[in-house]
Structure formats: C-alpha cells, structure tokens
Amino acid sequence: MIAVSLLPRTTDEALLALSAVSREADIAEVRLDAMGEFDLRRLLASPPCPLILTFRPRRDGGLYDGPEDRRLAVLRDAARLGATYVDVEHDALAALGDVPPAKVVVSYHDFAGTPADLGSIHARLARTGAAVVKVAVMARHILDTVAVLRVLKAATVPTIALSMGPRGVLTRVLAPKFGGLLTYASLEERNEAGPGQIPLRQMRDLYRVHRIGRGTRVYGVIADPVGHSLSPRIHNAAFAEVGLDAVYLPLWVEGDPAAFVRAMREFEVDGYSVTIPHKQAVMAAADELEPLARRIGAVNTLLRRPDGRLFATNTDWTAGLASIEAVVGEGWLRGKRALVLGAGGVGRAMAFGLLQRGADVTLADVDGARADALAAEVGAAVCPLGAVASAACDLLLNCTPIGMHPNTDATPPARGLLRPGLVVYDAVYNPLQTRLLHEAREAGCRTVAGIDHFVRQAVEQFELWTGRPAPVETMHHVVVEALGA
User: Fold this and answer.
1) Which of 60, 87, 122, 134 is catalytic?
2) Are residues 27 and 96 in the same domain?
3) 21 and 137 share a domain?
4) Catalytic residue among 90, 109, 235, 278
C-alpha cells in the first residue's frame, strides 16, 4: 500500500487534499499536529479512503507541543469516530490504552541516526500487542538501510520500516518486496511530512510501487551524488515497456561502493549500473570480471548470476565506440590520432577501446600522475593539460564531467583545437548540447553527443540483465524528454 502523508492546516484543506489523493493512494495519513484547527467529526464522517490519524508531539519530530492528555484524548476520539489507524509513539502507547475499533500503529522515530539494536527495538515493540509496528530512522549512510531491510524481512507482525533522508530511498520503494505493510509518499515535490519522502506520482509512475512484490527484480545505479542521474527514468521506462517485473533505484553511495554491494548480497539485488566516482573501486565486490574490463580497470555494470556470483563488465567502451562509428563509419579510427581528456573510468574505457580499433591515443588529465599511469598501462602518449589546445589530433574526446549540469558554462581547455574536419566526442549527456559541442559545431567539427553513448550503454546493460531486446526508442525518448529537448 502507498500512504500519502498530509499536513493540512484546516479541516477544509484536509478534506480537499483527501479528495485529491484518494484516486491514487491506498490510504492517507492526516497529521493533526500540523492543523491550526480540526473537526474530527467532519474529517471522519465519510472519508474517501482509509485514514491514519497522527498527532505527533514535537519530541518525536512533530509539531504539537501542548498538553499530553489532550493529545491522547484526541487520538481516542479519532479512533471512536472511525479512523482506520491511530499512530502513537512507543512511550505513549500504555497511556493511550485500547482504542477499538481503530488499529494502533506504535511508532519509534530516530531523527539522528540508525540505532545499532534496531532489530531488538522492533522486537520489543512487536511484543506490545499493537496492530502495527513502525520504525522510522535516519540514514546517515546508505549502509544504514541494511538494518531496516533486515527488520522488514524478519518481521512476523505487520510492520512499517523505513530509512529517512535521501539515502533511504531504497527502503521506501522496496518496502512491499520485503513485506512492509505500507510505504509513505508525499503529495507534492515539496515535502514537509518526512525527510526523504518520494512524491506520489514518482512512486506510482516511475517506480510502479503498486506492482512490486516478493518476486520483483531489483536494479540500481551506484553514484555519489546520484540525484542528477537519468538512469532510473530510462531503465524503469524500459522495464514497463516490455512488461518486466523489475524496479531500478538511485543509490547514493558515499565512500566504498564495494562495501555496499557486499552488504546488499543478502537481498539478492540483480544488477547495478556504476558511475562517477565508483567505476574502479566497485570492482573489489565482483566474483568474476570480464577480461577486457579487468584490463581496463573500471566497470560500469554488475550482474548477479543465477548462482549468486557477481559478474562485472564495462559497456562504456563498446557504447562509446559505437556512437563514434555511427558518425565516422566503421574502420575510420584505425591510424587516427585520438586525444582523450580524462583518465578516470570513462577515459580508461575509451582509451582501451580506441587502441583496440587501431587508433593512436594521447591522454591528458588534471591529475598528471593518473594520466601517466594509464598511459604506461596501455601504451599511450601523455599531453600536459596546459598543452591540450595545441595538440595534434583527429578525434577529441571529453571523458571528464566538465560541462555537466549544473556547471554548463564550463568546457575543457580545447578551444584552440577546434577546426573543420575534427571529430569531437563529449561523454557528458546533461545537457544534450554542451558548450564544447556547441563550439565544435560552430567551428565546423563533426560531433558525437553524450546522449547516444548514454543510451547505447544503457541498452547493453538492459539486454545483459534481462536477456531481452531493449526498447531502444523508448529509452532514447525518455532521456530526451527528461532533458527538455
């Protein structure tokens, strides 16, 4: 079930909001503590959907700071007048008493972090006899979500468990897969009901939460940060198009990505996309590396085999070269001089791929030592970053995040290179038209936009994960639409 959290100011506002959400949500939570006035009889006379009535005190993250006896009396009245559930804090449960016919949600909140003994806390609340146990804790790191997912998997009583904050998205989306009674959503993008709540439309249309069950396959993109990624849109749209019971999540992983992947093994995640800055460090979590990906030293795709082993590969180089060859033709790269800006994950992949196609590769990076190390590894030349504008090349590749949204005015230091006949490739796909590509077109260069590379690598990932042909047109359309082009 999806529960929409509402923070109305008046009874009229509450009734209007309930009318709106009842068409899309299964149940609504009305936060009485946000209301300057409320008329319980009107509110509960004929609600358009089941209601959870919550009167949260300030000590538990709510807005009410009045007398406790009044607060509990209001919850008892709400139960008597027809609320489906009343939500009460664990330390006030005994004082509330029995409130038939409503069911009681006993709540535990921690806005500071995730307690190490969360499982014990849940077990203690389960012994109270409340109809539903709710634990909501703050995720300071995405690894904190592991404890919440474990609570959901192990629960033997109806349970709501979630990680608050932007690192906790996976617990909100995956709640139905792991047995959660419900998950909360906000009515609008601007959310005040709970840190990290996802808008209702996203829960329904992007993640298709109503369709998620025990058998739903789980994928996600590992990045730091992750909010800008279009991968959830493109892959979820592709799953919907082909009718696959699967969901794809944004995973904000700070620090060691391999530690996160290892921790999530018990939840049988089926695959990951991997992007900046984790393409090299995540390799430590793999059981099997595709040979060229091992040589490249960077991966962007993980797949869980039927036996549970994790296979890692790299679709960046194949997608990148295919996007270039779509412009210049097969065979064009042989003998051409390619200048690769950036020796990170994408730069490494493209350098290896270009050398396989017979190109002469020169590397430049803001980190000179990194460029030197990669050049020695692959047999490429190195160009100091300050000399890029005067380097000789037939193909210029920007494999850095320079020019990526929101820093769209930035561009690599290559303006002096731009001339008719030069081929310019930019791995950045947001925006579609980077400053580098705009200036290259003005100079008469042939250009290769990052969107083609991005869609191609996503298509390869989809087909590797699912064994099905990808809906390429849908995936391309989603990206173009998302970028407002």
Assistant:
1) 134
2) yes
3) yes
4) 109
Q: What is the pLDDT of residue 399?
A: 96
Domain that includes residue 117, residue range: 2-213
**Residues 289, 373 share a domain:** no
371-420 per-position pLDDT tens digit: 999 999 999 999 998 899 889 999 999 999 999 988 999 999 988 899 99
Residue 193 and residue 275 in one domain:
no
Catalytic residue, chosen from 87, 316, 360, 452, is: 316
Whole-angstrom distance, CA of residue 377 vs CA of residue 366: 18
Q: Encoding tokens for residue 360?
A: 């002469």
Separation CA 200–CA 197 (nearest Å)? 9
Burial 188-214 (b: 16+ CB within 10 A, else e): eeebebbbbbbbbebbbebbbbeebee
| Arithmetic mean of pLDDT, 79-86 | 97
Residues 16 and 121 in one domain: yes
* Domain identity same for 266 and 330: no
Residue 223 forms part of a structural domain: no
Annotation says 109 is catalytic = yes
Alpha carbon distance 244, 238 (integer Å): 8
Q: In this predicted model, what pLDDT tens digit does every residue of 323-366 receive, in sequence order?
A: 999 999 999 999 999 999 999 889 999 999 999 999 999 999 99
Please state, in angstroms and rounded to a whole number, the distance separating the CA atoms of residues 357 and 153. Answer: 49
Selecting among 90, 122, 177, 279, the annotated active-site residue is 279
Residues 430-478: tens digit of each pLDDT = 899 999 999 999 999 999 999 999 999 999 999 999 999 999 999 999 9
Residue 103: active-site member = no
Domain annotation covers residue 221 = no
- Catalytic-residue membership of 210: no
**Catalytic residue status for 153:** no
